[in-house]
Design a protein that fits this description.
Blueprint: E1 2-6, E2 9-13, E3 19-23, E4 29-34, E5 40-44, E6 48-52, E7 64-69, E8 75-81, E9 84-89, E10 93-98, E11 105-106, H1 108-111, E12 128-135, E13 141-147, E14 150-154, E15 162-163, E16 172-178, E17 181-189, E18 192-196, E19 204-206, E20 215-222, E21 225-234, E22 248-252, E23 260-261, E24 279-281, E25 289-292, E26 297-301, E27 309-313, E28 317-322
Antiparallel strand pairs: 1-2, 1-28, 2-3, 4-5, 5-6, 6-7, 8-9, 9-10, 10-11, 12-13, 13-14, 14-15, 16-17, 17-18, 18-19, 20-21, 21-22, 22-23, 24-25, 25-26, 26-27
Length: about 325
C-alpha cells in the first residue's frame, strides 16, 4: 500500500494504483509515519499529531485519535523510538511526547546545543528541523536534520545532543538510517550524498556520479539491504527555464561504489525537485519504493528502482509513505 498526504486528507493506493481509501477528509496532512507498534501517524493542520488504530482501517473516522498538538508553531516531521515521539518543528525546535499521547514538551536540551547560533537559512529566515531518523532497539539513537545547520544527534533519548562532525555539508535536506547498520547515517545535501559509518563522526561524500546535478533533497535506503539506496538529484533548489530543476533519481547497490540512473519508466527528468518526504521505501518489502514528482504523478517500483511505473495522478501531495 502507498499512502499520500495531501491538502485534503490521506489517500491510499494499491501497488497498481487502485484507490483503496481516503482518510481524514478535508484535513491538511503534511507528514506520515508509523509508531513503535506500526500504527499510522499523521501531522494534520500543521500542528496536530494524529494516530489511526491501524493502517488498514485509517478510513474509519472513529479509529483516529488526536495524541496532542504543538502550540504556536508548525510541526514538520516526527519519529517514534522507545515509546516516545520526537517532533521536529519550525524555528529548529524539537518536541517530545509519549506514543500514547499527552502534552508535547519542548526539549530545552535541544535549545542548548552549542552550535545552535550558527544555524540559519540562505534567505535569512529561521532554520527548521526538516527530517528525523532514528535507530531503535538496545541502543537508541536520534538524528535531526537542521535546515540549515547539519545534523545533530542524541544517544540518550534526547537528554543531551551533539553536532555531527567531519566534512558533512551543512545544508542537509534529509537524514536517514537503517536498522541493520546502527552506526550508519545517510544525508542528502545541497552538495551530494554523504554516508557515515560512525554515527556522524566522519563522512564519505558522493558527488561526481551526479554532476552537474549536485543538489539533493532525499536519500532512502532499501530496508532489506543497507548498501542499496536511492538519491534524488537536481541542478538546484528552484526551477529555471523550460526544463526546471531537471531532477532525477540515482541508485546504488554497493554502497556508492557504482551508481546508475534509475530512469526506466520515468520521464527524462522532472521539472520540480523530488522533495524531502516525497520518496519512500517500504519497511516490510525489499526493493519496494514509491515517489511523487511534486506535481501530480505517483510512481512505484518493486525491483529496487530498476524500473518504475506511474500508478496514479494526484495533485498537491506533501509526503509519501510505502507500507
Amino acid at each position: 500500500m502507498i499512502l499520500t498526504a495531501t491538502e485534503k486528507g490521506i489517500v491510499g493506493f494499491s501497488d497498481s494504483g487502485n484507490e483503496l481509501y481516503r482518510a481524514l477528509p478535508g484535513t491538511s496532512v503534511s507528514f506520515l509515519s508509523v509508531d513503535c507498534d506500526g500504527r499510522l501517524l499523521a501531522i494534520a493542520d500543521g500542528n496536530r499529531i494524529m494516530r489511526a488504530a491501524s493502517v488498514d482501517s485509517a478510513d474509519i473516522e472513529a479509529n483516529w485519535t488526536e495524541l496532542g498538538s504543538l502550540h504556536d508553531t508548525e510541526a514538520n516531521c516526527l519519529a517514534a523510538v522507545s515509546g516516545m515521539l520526537f517532533i521536529g518543528a519550525a524555528d529548529a525546535r524539537l518536541w517530545a511526547m509519549p506514543c500514547s499521547g499527552g502534552e508535547p514538551e519542548r526539549l530545552s536540551s535541544f535549545e542548548e546545543i552549542e552550535t545552535r547560533d550558527s544555524w540559519n537559512t540562505p534567505w535569512g529566515g529561521p532554520p527548521d528541523v526538516r527530517s528525523i531518523a532514528v535507530i531503535t532497539g538496545g541502543s537508541p539513537a536520534i538524528y535531526a536534520d537542521i535546515h540549515v545547520g547539519g545534523i545533530v544527534r542524541s544517544f540518550d533519548m534526547g537528554e543531551t545532543w551533539s553536532q555531527a562532525q567531519g566534512s558533512l555539508h551543512r545544508d542537509v535536506h534529509r537524514v536517514s538510517t537503517h536498522p541493520d547498520m546502527p552506526d550508519r547515517v545517510y544525508a542528502a545535501t545541497a552538495r551530494g550524498c554523504f554516508v557515515s559509518e560512525d554515527t556522524g563522526e566522519s563522512w564519505e561524500q558522493f558527488l561526481a556520479p551526479f554532476e552537474p546535478r549536485r543538489y539533493q533533497r532525499c536519500v532512502m535506503p532499501d530496508q532489506e539491504d543497507p548498501n542499496s539506496f536511492l538519491c534524488t538529484v537536481s541542478l538546484g533548489p528552484h526551477p529555471e527555464g523550460e526544463t526546471g530543476c531537471e531532477a532525477m533519481i540515482f541508485r546504488t547497490s554497493d554502497r556508492g561504489a557504482t551508481w546508475a540512473r534509475a530512469h526506466e519508466g520515468l520521464p527524462e527528468h522532472f521539472y520540480q525537485n523530488i522533495n524531502t518526504h516525497m520518496l519512500s521505501a517500504s519497511v516490510q518489502r525489499p526493493g519496494v519504493f514509491a515517489f511523487h514528482d511534486d506535481q501530480e504523478s505517483l510512481y512505484f517500483t518493486d525491483d529496487g528502482a530498476r524500473s518504475w511505473k506511474k500508478i496514479a495522478t494526484i495533485p498537491r501531495v506533501a509526503a509519501v509513505m510505502v507500507i
